[in-house]
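Consider the tokenized backbone below.
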């Protein structure tokens, strides 16, 4: 059963949690903080950096005029993100 707690964390940790939500690694910030606690900061930081790079490269390809057919990139991203869901 979930229990609500109030904690102070560094701004860097909040920004990391927000990226986790943006990339679909976590459903919300609360879920992101739980993943951070369970998996550890370094492992989560590496995962978010990976997705930062994936999205940057995808944006570069789109700007160059490349298109992913039939939503293939979205499917790939969803499959990889789903392994993080708790």
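A designed sequence for it:
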């Amino acid at each position: 059963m979930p229990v609500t707690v109030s904690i102070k964390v560094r701004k860097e940790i909040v920004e990391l949690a927000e990226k986790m939500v943006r990339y679909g690694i976590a459903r919300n910030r609360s879920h992101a903080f739980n993943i951070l606690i369970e998996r550890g900061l370094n492992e989560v930081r590496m995962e978010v950096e990976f997705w930062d790079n994936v999205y940057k490269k995808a944006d570069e390809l789109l700007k160059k005029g490349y298109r992913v057919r039939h939503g293939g990139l979205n499917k790939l991203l969803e499959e990889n993100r789903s392994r993080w869901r708790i």
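The chain has a mean pLDDT of 84.
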